[in-house]
Amino acid sequence: MTSSTAQESSLFTELVGAAHVRTARADDSVGGVMPRLVVSPGDQSEVASVLSAATARGLAVVARGGGTKLDWGSPPERCDIVLSTSRITGIVDHEPADLVCVVRAGTPLALVQDTLAAAPGFRQRLMLDPPQAGAATIGGVVATAASGPLRTRFGTARDLVIGASFVLADGTVGRSGGKVVKNVAGFDVAKLLVGSLGTLAVITEVAFRLHPLPEASRTVVLESRSVSDLCAFASRVGQLQVTPSLVDIHWPQGVAVVRFDSSELGAGVQAERVVHDVGGRVLSDDEATTLHASVAGSPWTGEGTVCAVAMLPARVLELLSTLSATCDAVSLRPLLGTGELRFAADALGTVVEAVRAAGGRMTIRRGDAPTAGSVDDAVALELMRSVKLQLDPARTLSPGRQVGGI
Amino acid sequence: MLDAALQERLRAAVGDDGMISEPAALQTYACDGLTGRRVSPAAVVLPTTTGQVAQVVRACAESDVPFVARGAGTGLSGGALPVADGVVIGLSRMRAILDVDLENQQVTVQPGVTNLEVSKAVRPLGYFYAPDPSSQQVCTIGGNVAENSGGAHCLKYGFTTHHVLAATFVTARGEIAQLGGSVRDAAGYDLLGVVIGSEGTLGIVTEVVLRIVRVPESTETVLAAFSTMGDAGEAVSRIIAAGITPAAIEMMDRLAIQACEEIVHAGYPDCGAALIVELDGPAVESSAFLRQVLDICTASGSTETRVAASESERALIWKARKAAFASMGRISPSYYVQDGVIPRTRLREVLESIGTLSTTYGLRVANVFHAGDGNLHPLVLYDDTEPGASDRALELAGLILESCIAAGGSITGEHGVGSDKACYMPKMFSPGSIAVMGRVRDAFDASDICNPGKALPTPRLCGEVPGMYRPHAIEIAGLADRL
Q: Cβ A192–B342 below 8 Å, yes or no?
């Protein structure tokens, strides 16, 4: 430990206690940048004192939850301290009859789901199913805007967060929204934090809108080796008067999967409608479980570069046709025009070109050169810089991780 | 009065027919739906293109003259209240639907298009635009974006923020930016997310890409009568607890029902509380939920239930509900509408406290609300010719908001803070939270000329509240200290 590290260590020890400051190890590195210390504040006010102390000394801080998506975004240009939210945990409030819960940022998503599903007299769920969810925490899922198949019906964290508490780099503690779903008082600052990659504030608590767990689920699948059949099927499902929870295409599995979560009657009748009007077949519960398990985590499982893509729904077929041979795995939400691809590192150029040709955008999530993507509009980028300058002028929080080196 | 040079610049930007500066004509723009607050602007401009809006804003910015964007002026919180000596930018001439893209389920519109026009344009194709504020026949998409408008059906379908994919945005300096995108997952910060609902204080949207939704296969509408609001509230709780997500759940009390019946004659039963529950989805499912809802209503003490047997019966039920504010004129010379939100589970106690306040103040309060999401619209009735009555009504309305905040709710669910409730913000948010919002505002409009004095409290409007100070960026960076 160098003398400056020792000084910093004793400073943070004073703020959070010796047991909660440690020297960083190799596996604490963030995008290849080694921090010196890992500091674990116990509550929001400790987060505030850690951040204001770091800012006063010009130290860079990267907030970390479960660390499952720490390589999302560009590598930080500096990282002195990892601020772990591992002690800021717990469900603060869950009022099942209001379909709302308030959760501290370091709480694992899985724990939240288990608690909600077990509330006496109610069975509820937070409709977020991000990839690589293992140890993912609420704060991390919000900061990365990570989403999964359920996005087709329920949206992303952006659509489910109804309030957030956070701490700015100067120690200012703020909150936006509240714990009622319908609320337009004040600016929706939480929207800026969703997907901010930790560059604006450290999220300490999030309030969510919940949904009831469905009484029944029915899955319809179309199996085909033709990408155009799969895309045509999905697109026609999107035009039916039905409300699927997910509509996904997986390649090379060659499946289009549609799931209805509703009442027993509602799920069944909608599944039958799809089969009757468009095609595919309804799976038995066992078959459905097997299918969902077989595509779960795709395309993240396996070696290679993973990138998120987005294009107009009408261009999905074009992209999939071009890339079905190039990519090792593709999982798309055709009704939204979003999804993820996995491919060998040397195929990057081909993928970039195909996405560009389909009028889409891509962000590398795992691989040699992860980025936060790029913003084409210079005025919009300038506004983003301006937001950063106002909220974190000293550039304490995850400097360089967001677009344009923000 | 604007200085002559600015006046000429504005005229050059929008043309003679887009410029209003006659004092009498300016009066039309002196207020929005909150008619008690009136300020005459120095000029009104009516641009027809994004480029014209940008030119107007640039001219104002370079002269340091404040401006206020305005749609149809139906807002109920004074969000479009002009600034004296400032410019109102009326977007009513930008009312083209620019593109209907069914394949991608998107529609691109100018901000002056009315909410209902969007649904009308796509309805024949089997789609609709989900947010449906009660003023949807006249209110505009631009105003909906500014206010993050909801409506009765947002219980199931969400608010404006869930249905806007992209916007062309004129910044407070008159530059043009593209926020969000027709292609999802635009990189960087979700600026559009914070612009929606910012009440026109961050800039002006001049083109909006909206998501449209497939019309559900079937819709069932129930009108249920209860002898008390408590019983109706109980039915609401049980419906939600049963895991049913209705498209809408609305409630009206006896006074509100009587007023609506005066003008709509929808045949509502004379009862202590009426509940409207709407269910939509696949036909077999909505009829199954309908049976369940009818059972719940009966079990909760409903004295009568009616199911709309036709589209016209459904329309009549809704017509009465949507006429609730307008009909208050039949039973009271004046009224003040509040927009508080409470957790659904606190409905009974908050209604009781509203009842107590009504008795204490000797003023009638009619209750109309979006019961499914706890959004109350108490209408405080008073006679403005009676000395002091309007102050008493405002005081009573303020106490209702305080009971909403105390119950863990919000001061506004859909009408916005505007100029009306800016001074209530410190009751709901800490000084730190308001300071952060102020810093976000500064990021977009450092000169404070874009709809100033709305949404956030200012010392000038609300007095020097401790903690109102916003640290300057230089102070935060540790480069200077405030002495």
A: no
